[in-house]
Amino acid sequence: MEQHFRSYVGGQWVDGSGSHTDENPADLATPVGRYGVLDAAATAQAVDAAAAALPAWSLSNPQQRADILDFVGSEILARKEELGRLLAREEGKTLAESIGEATRAGQIFRFFAGEALRIPGEKLASTRPGVEIEITREPVGTVGIIAPWNFPLAIPAWKIAPALAYGNTVVFKPAEIVPGCAWALAEILSRAGLPDGVFNMVLGSGRTVGQALVSHPKLDALTFTGSVPTGRALLKQAAERALKVQMEMGGKNPLVVLADADLDTAVECAVNGAFFSTGQRCTASSRLIVESAVHDAFVERMQARLAQLKVGDPLDPSVHIGPVASGAQLETDLSYIRAGHEDGGELLAGGARVDCATEGHFLAPTLFAAQPSHRIAREEIFGPVAAVLRADDYEHALALANDTPFGLCAGICTTSLRHASHFRRHAQAGMVMVNLPTAGVDPHVPFGGRKASSYGPREQGRYAVEFYTTVKTAYIAP
């Protein structure tokens, strides 16, 4: 029997209108389930419910919040294989990656269970005799969360958990193609002991549900992860209302490989960063910048390594790369492959769809030798497509790495401490990796970038307090 995924508003499950297919990108003949979508009026009801629940929840006992978040995190960890399987079927990650993401989501909730008991504050002496100063952090209010489809458990977790930990109420809008993961997360939260209205989950399109959420007068803050065009449009709309905003909007991340690098390490970093999770990560290494002295040897090893990767059913433990998440994303990937050819790039590997036992959105990991001006070397593709760029020396490689409007993550493979230290300081990115894939960050440290990649305070870790709270300064005289 197919599962039916519903929205969660004011403590009640809501069917929404119509019945839409939740596609399995690895097997179009066996969908994950069905779901209904909300209209603007129902979305407004969700915001109203969150706003009504805010006064009591914002003053709730921090131990209560900690216990609720610990319950959620513990259940996610206990069910990580089950949730990972759902994620693999719905989004297309391999089962190992999907279980890893579920594990990360559980760890995030448990981390913020602790943070609920560690909300910082200060007590200072005034310049006026006998006057005390107390600086405290209070909830920012009702928070709208718009999450993407590529990490349908982890990214909602690192937005929802701190919002609740610091006493905010939430209206969560997941991406349309992952309603099952959103429902699974909401279902756990619905049993965690939250008062009605504190957490709400609304299924629907960005055009209808997203717009109704952002335009609602009772919304106090918005955290968004998604594309640059959508983010910029939302930022303009939020600015008109002076909403507090936090945005993560993608990247075109470089991995620099110097002549002194261990090439085996460099190849593994490149393959993992560029192609695992089907390249559908904002931290993916889509520009491989290789010093000329080892360029040809690196390309040869990359071709051999990519030939070893198996594309197919993400539930098959022998598969390394699952399907692209949707037909629309597959067409985007193929359009960039065509652009790579049209711009004069040299196809080194892949470049075509893969036939598997089931009908799905399978694409071979694709590697081009390209020039810095080529579209595949400048625009975010969000698929298993990467470009190799030749650099004359370290200085040229650094210049190429920074020659992008994005600035999320940057990596370097080198055995030179001097070059590694210089790159860490001079790479124009919010995160830097040395001899590691650009994709993959721990849940207790800040996540975010510079330039067009990010806007507003960092996500994750203790730095999340900057977005989800507001500072109050109080003067006290005897």
Automatic annotation (TrEMBL):
Aldehyde dehydrogenase domain residues: 13-473
Gene3D superfamilies: Aldehyde Dehydrogenase, Chain A, domain 1, Aldehyde Dehydrogenase, Chain A, domain 2
Species for this entry: Luteimonas wenzhouensis
Keyword field: Oxidoreductase
Membrane spanning stretches: none
Record keyword Oxidoreductase present: yes
Active site (record annotation): 248
GO MF, one example: oxidoreductase activity, acting on the aldehyde or oxo group of donors, NAD or NADP as acceptor
InterPro entries: Ald_DH/histidinol_DH, Ald_DH_C, Ald_DH_CS_CYS, Ald_DH_CS_GLU, Ald_DH_N, Aldehyde_DH_dom
Protein name: Aldehyde dehydrogenase family protein
Top-level taxon: Bacteria
Alphabetical list of PROSITE patterns matching this protein: ALDEHYDE_DEHYDR_CYS, ALDEHYDE_DEHYDR_GLU
Family, similarity comment: Belongs to the aldehyde dehydrogenase family.
